Amino acid sequence: MKLCYRGVDYDYNPPSLEVRDSELTGCYRGRSMKFSYVSHVPVPQPVANYTYRGVSYSTNAQGQVQSTTVTPDRQPVFQAGRISTGKGLTARRHLLQEAAEAHRANIQQSIQHRIEVARAQGNDQLLKQLEEELHQVA
Fold first, then answer.
1. Of 14, 20, 13, 47, which is closest to residue 36 (Cα–Cα)?
2. pTM beyond 0.85, yes or no
3. For residue 104, is it within any domain?
């Protein structure tokens, strides 16, 4: 089909799709009608390399999974029972300890504030519960 857009002529050939009539029939405004559907619509599959739980695999254009060989220099990030004494692990542990301490301090401050509000309101039952919670955190 020859088309023209802003003075540029070009040929456009829309993809041809095979349409089949289905067994479904219906009624629209009093007239019977038959439904049709496209028999096959090609869907392009992504071609990529993936890793799931340390196992590498890839997909092809047909969507099939192909296993790939694992390179020996690549190790899984976490292994059960593996103990590393590198600088990165000690720094990570230190950061996690600091975060846990900061979290505990924030919880204590929040409970202290709630205790002050309960005292100001004269709510003895809530005050007792908050003091028990403070002792559990500390």
1. 20
2. no
3. yes
Domain count, the chain: 1
Spans of the chain, pLDDT less than 70: 41-42, 68-86
Integer Cα distance of 67 and 54 in angstroms: 12
Q: At what angle do helices 124-137 and 87-121 cross, to 10 degrees?
A: 160
Q: Is residue 62 part of a domain?
A: no
**Nearest CA among 95, 53, 94 for reference residue 77:** 53
Residue 104: domain span: 87-137
> Is the Cα dihedral 75, 76, 77, 79 positive or negative?
negative
Residues ≥6 apart with Cβ < 8 Å to 34 = 21, 22, 24, 25, 26
Question: Can you tell me the distance from the alpha carbon of 22 to that of 28, in angstroms, rounded to the nearest whole number?
Answer: 16
74 inside domain? no
Dihedral angle computed from the Cα positions of residues 111, 112, 114 and 119, in that order, rounded to the nearest 10 degrees: 140
Tens digit of pLDDT for each residue in 63-81? 777 776 655 555 555 555 5
